[in-house]
């Protein structure tokens, strides 16, 4: 009789434990205000740096855009008809978020003839650079030499959830970024495009020049020019000059013509 009772109690405990494990809260569920669906390239820029006069397009540039789940399904035929030539699409954030609109945006832009690439919104305080790079590659951040896929992009900007530099020292931030970049190169053979602002880069990396030799710069500045660039970069490859305009999402320029954009896409 006692044995039967014990067996029943053990079984009940096992069922309860299994239910608790199945219901274990995720990082998102335990983080107040966590909103990866609202984090995108530039989502923190205007609140920190403001907006100046609208940017202008030098004659040698070509227009494009960047989008995320914030835009939802995009009418890519309309975007193409308005003159867009390229698009960057958010794929992931940290190691636990995939944009629900990534496939529609990434494949849709490709299908109408845009040259497109994927980007990762970094949260350096949540996981290592290597771990976030691996997650990105596994969920849309790969690359193929098809002439229509841009280098994967690292979106590194103001922390949407707290301390501007994610609680990392400048040295630790440089190490985190380098680890991400190196792992992406190992996994894809491409040096990543780096999206940032001069102000954030200066505060959080000490205006590090360590990536300028290999990694294309995607500068964010909502003004009439791209302004002073982070150390080491003598020119910008992409410029996000406004967070609204002709296209859905953010308004971007590539620094040269379509022939050079194709060269970048083919590596």
From TrEMBL:
Signal peptide extent: 1-28
SMART domains recorded: Glyco_25
EC number, UniProt record: 3.2.1.17
Catalytic activity of the protein: Hydrolysis of (1->4)-beta-linkages between N-acetylmuramic acid and N-acetyl-D-glucosamine residues in a peptidoglycan and between N-acetyl-D-glucosamine residues in chitodextrins
InterPro entries cross-referenced by the UniProt entry: GH, Glyco_hydro_25, Glyco_hydro_fam25_subgr
Keyword annotations of the record: Antimicrobial, Bacteriolytic enzyme, Disulfide bond, Glycosidase, Hydrolase, Secreted, Signal
Entry similarity comment: Belongs to the glycosyl hydrolase 25 family.
Molecular function as annotated in GO: lysozyme activity
Record's subcellular location: Secreted
GO annotation (BP), single: carbohydrate catabolic process
A GO cellular-component term linked to this record: extracellular region
Native organism: Kutzneria buriramensis
Function: This enzyme has both lysozyme (acetylmuramidase) and diacetylmuramidase activities.
Principal subcellular localisation of the protein: secreted
UniProt name for this protein: lysozyme
């Amino acid at each position: 009789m006692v044995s039967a009772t014990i067996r029943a109690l053990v079984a009940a405990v096992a069922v309860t434990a299994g239910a608790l494990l199945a219901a274990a809260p995720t990082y998102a569920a335990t983080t107040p205000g966590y909103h990866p669906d609202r984090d995108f390239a530039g989502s923190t820029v205007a609140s920190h740096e403001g907006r100046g006069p609208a940017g202008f397009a030098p004659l040698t540039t070509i227009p494009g855009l960047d989008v995320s789940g914030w835009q939802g399904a995009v009418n890519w035929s309309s975007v193409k008809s308005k003159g867009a030539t390229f698009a960057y699409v958010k794929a992931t954030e940290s190691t636990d978020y995939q944009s629900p609109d990534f496939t529609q945006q990434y494949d849709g832009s490709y299908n109408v003839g845009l040259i497109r690439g994927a980007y990762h919104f970094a949260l350096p305080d949540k996981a290592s650079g290597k771990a976030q790079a691996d997650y990105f590659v596994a969920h849309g951040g790969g690359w193929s030499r098809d002439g229509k896929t841009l280098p994967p992009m690292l979106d590194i900007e103001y922390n949407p959830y707290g301390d501007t530099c994610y609680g990392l020292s400048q040295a630790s931030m440089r190490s985190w970024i380098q680890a991400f970049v190196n792992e992406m190169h190992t996994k894809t053979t491409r040096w990543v495009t780096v999206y940032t602002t001069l102000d954030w880069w200066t505060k959080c990396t000490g205006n590090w020049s360590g990536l300028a030799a290999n990694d294309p710069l995607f500068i964010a500045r909502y003004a009439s020019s791209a302004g002073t660039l982070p150390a080491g970069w003598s020119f910008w490859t992409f410029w996000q000059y406004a967070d609204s305009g002709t296209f859905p999402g953010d308004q971007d320029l590539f620094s040269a013509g379509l022939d050079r954009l194709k060269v970048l896409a083919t590596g």
